[in-house]
Amino acid sequence: MIIGLTGKNGSGKGEAAKFLQLCGFEYYSLSDILREVLSKKKIPITRENLIKTGTKLREEEGYGALAERTLAKLTPDKNYVIDSIRNPEEVRALKRRDDFFLIKIDAPQKVRFERVKQRARESDPMTFSSFVEMEDRELKSKNPAAQQLLATEKLADFTVSNASTIETLNDNVRKIIAKLSRERVRPDWDEYFMDIARVAATRSNCAKRQVAAVLVRDKRIIATGYNGTPRGVKNCNEGGCARCNSFGPSGANLGECLCSHAEENAITQSAYHGVMIKDTLLYTTFSPCLMCTKMIINSGIREVVYDAHYPLLDISLKLLKEAGVIVRKINS
């Protein structure tokens, strides 16, 4: 889950971020990217310089640049809180992740000004008139690369009022993340095992195509395999298979290919380690070729779930169905 925070100066985004960190969320701030830029250039870190640098970076790299840089640091197995979101394109970039939600933290203007005065950070305005003047510049601008807080706030999934105590703020944020946690949609078993197969495919050493297969019994993985040259032979991508390294047409000269297929490796590795695979499910990122089809049938695998179509698909599918093997294509 990724929680984004937006809101006007002094609204309490930092307090909400601290609470989420206590809840186990890893913290990122889009402003920290700007601070790094300013530090490298030995430019004073003031609010004005942060705003100018953010505008320049969005103009040079795209309006969602700060969000894109932050997204590149995230992994799907953790919860994150991202602070200082001030441009609607940053929100749209982050919303490419299905588990991203934007919370707007709000508070009355005079309350926010008193908070800003108390923290006295990065040349914050110390008079109410200068505070209002700076805020007006941040709320909207004719330059789409500049801060666009009003437009950003309109994209919020939730609004939390922070006009009273920190305890109330934390309680309201807690209710939101509890609700999101209850509603989180986990991948079904087909998606789960196929995603694992896709990761396993990244270990393939084949120069032409990366494929992987996963053997499953009782919703537990018992073997994996990916395509590549046999054990002890030079890797395909290091020149081990002349056919693959010629990069000829797909399906041509298959009899000259030295690479073992993913399904073949999953089956033979099971035999190598003495693992019984009768009545298992096989998940493969690429539908099986004829040779692998015959191995699937004779090894007693009862079901094949595949992602992409193999060019010589028809005869393999016909043979699998004739042998009573269930065949399904995953909806990806």
Task: Give an overview in words.
There is one protein chain. The protein has 332 residues and is of the alpha/beta class. It is 43% helix and 16% strand. The protein is built from 14 helices and ten strands. The chain has helices spanning 13-22, 30-40, 47-61, 65-71, 88-94, 109-119, 128-139, 149-153, 166-183, 189-201, 242-245, 262-272, 290-299, 313-322; strands at 2-6, 26-29, 80-83, 100-106, 158-161, 212-217, 220-226, 281-286, 303-308, 326-329. The strands form two sheets. The chain has a five-stranded parallel β-sheet with strand order 2-3-1-4-5. A five-stranded mixed β-sheet has the order 7-6-8-9-10, with helices on both faces. Helix 2 (30-40) crosses helix 3, helix 2 (30-40) packs across helix 4 and helix 4 (65-71) packs parallel to helix 5.
Secondary-structure map with pairings?
Elements: E1 2-6, H1 13-22, E2 26-29, H2 30-40, H3 47-61, H4 65-71, E3 80-83, H5 88-94, E4 100-106, H6 109-119, H7 128-139, H8 149-153, E5 158-161, H9 166-183, H10 189-201, E6 212-217, E7 220-226, H11 242-245, H12 262-272, E8 281-286, H13 290-299, E9 303-308, H14 313-322, E10 326-329
Parallel strand pairs: 1-3, 1-4, 2-3, 4-5, 8-9, 9-10
Antiparallel strand pairs: 6-7, 6-8
Give short descriptive properties of this protein.
10 strands, five-stranded parallel beta sheet, single chain, five-stranded mixed beta sheet, alpha/beta, 332 residues
Question: Level of helix content?
Answer: 40-55%
N-to-C SSE string, H for helix and E for strand: EHEHHHEHEHHHEHHEEHHEHEHE
The largest pleated sheet is described as: 5 strands, parallel
- Provide a count of the helices: 14
Task: Provide the low-confidence segments as ranges.
Answer: none
Tell me which oligomeric state these chains represent.
single chain
Helix and strand content put the structural class at: alpha/beta
Q: Tell me the radius of gyration.
A: 27 Å
Mean pLDDT: 90
User: Which of globular, elongated, flat, extended, rod-shaped describes the shape?
Assistant: elongated
Report the span from N to C terminus.
22 Å
- The proportion of residues in beta strands is 15-25%
Number of extended strands: 10
Order the strands across the largest sheet as they lie in space.
2-3-1-4-5
